[in-house]
């Protein structure tokens, strides 16, 4: 057994014990700040949405309660839920966080091991801070009629949208906790002793209820994904905001800029979100908005591979695009989920520095 | 046309215009308090959850991205997401809000017309305030494997759980905005000029992914609904809390007390939640916890009909059970959604008065 294997085994054993003893400690794990948080305002609202007719609302067995079946009627879909809090004296441009695949806005709140998340931290640092929940996920709801139509044999099961589930072995590898399930990278910033608390954040992803293909969405700068329209409308309605996406949503800020509704003051892409098929007109449009791409560790020798072409194009068009690989600036061991990693506030400070220099000053 | 019909028609016409002009004004409708909100802490965590195996995670078409299909693995289900904020100097017993059917914790936040919701108001009034999201809804996720099994023809479509959808005509009548769709009651506290913003809160209800029958759950004091176990565990972990349910969840606090985990200092049932089939032992257990039932307007001549038997039993066992019908105490025109009605903070004050007198003093 070589040294690396030994370390991995040791990490694995430690992890197994930690995981077992950490169960049901979510509440007692909380580590709130000693400093009170002062908010000028807080609340929530929706952006977008449209009304459609359904004939399969699911209540056919409930006539006894309501006196009528309520099977047919209008439902509102494609809305986007947004939560916000603002500091008394904002010192930065408003920022909107958009979570990734299989996740909700919970991603930006308290970390799995009970530390402060970015929602609170950015507010404390002077940002009017918004969390937008992807249309089709969590409090934004999803278009559900087809599931009842399949159940009632009106539509073939093969027509039913896939529901993407985040298994723990998928999360472990794709989110780069380690090379294989239950084996951590030797340097790992993610709080793996509370990984079960992270798995609780992972919820069914109804992306395919909105667009024909998740894969196409990840590579196409143009999209009919209603989340992107809502994201663009939100920046416009706010009268100016930075849009930040992560992983599945990393490309959404760029797609939103290309909707040409105005108001997007900066693009922040966490864990890629670059496009290799932009038209000259699209490059010109994007060159007007400062762009930051940030990635964690363990992405191989060329973590910027997917972004090189777009960066060259944006820079040639006079734009401002920055790529930060965390290990290259001295932060080792960050996972895909660096907003929850042990050094999450140091990573946030890097982003805030970029905002101060590239967005606020303009 | 009699006077009542005339009034209804007038209301209808007014409403149609208001509804049309209110679209896309969700953000600009916000009416934040002029007073800053000071929090000792804020955050979120999960209660409960268990790991199950899935062989249908939905990724069979994505091998190109991940290098492996990730179809099989472990997923975490039955967890309950909880959001909280606490004032610097709490003056009341902690309270946990649980939303109703077809809704999420959004129910307790900013109202459809942009006013302060109960989450913020109770915090400002000195309550450590928690919002628990039903297991199976919104950020708590749901057990989704069976939907992919149906899609892949491994299980018959008829086995697929119903998804309950809230149509606007159902909401209008069941939530007592008016006697029939688009016709308001002559006195109506719900902000119907923003009813479209309310419909955006209404999301698919996956209740049937957890229990065989929603109907049975509403009438049975015993339950296997994981939300109720999580609700009971939360009160216990908090070391004492008032549990508040509404509509679909109005009976959950009672069901949670009967789990006998301790820590439930008070039960608040909005819009019924009474049981007519309690055993003597159950009555004895419930008689140890102060209970408040509160209902809105337009429930007929005997709004307490579903609660008379339980109240008699609780009182005979020496318990403390209060029934408040809002029109009987001078508040006219409240809908099923009185936490969002125009007089929502006055209604909250009634609840806070009850808490001060029946729970805090004990």
Describe the protein in words:
Two copies of one chain form a homodimer. Chain A is an alpha/beta fold. Chain A contains twelve helices and nine strands. Helices cover 29% and strands 17% of the residues of chain A. Chain A has an eight-stranded mixed beta sheet, with helices on both faces. The longest helix of chain A has 19 residues, at 3-21. Chain A is globular and about 65 Å long. Chains A and B meet through strand 1, strand 2, helix 2, strand 3 and helix 4 of A and strand 1, strand 2, helix 2, strand 3 and helix 4 of B.
Oligomer: homodimer
Largest interface: A-B, 95 and 95 residues
Q: Could you say which structural class the secondary elements and strand pairing of chain A correspond to?
A: alpha/beta
* Biggest sheet, spatial arrangement of strands of chain A: 2-3-5-4-6-7-8-9
Report the count of strand segments of chain A.
9
Main beta-sheet annotation of chain A: 8 strands, mixed
The H-and-E topology of chain A, N to C, reads as: HEEHEEHEHHHHHEHEHEHEH
Poorly predicted ranges of chain A = 1-24
Tell me what portion of residues of chain A adopts beta-strand conformation. 15-25%
Q: Work out the helix count of chain A.
A: 12
What is the rounded distance between the termini of chain A?
56 Å
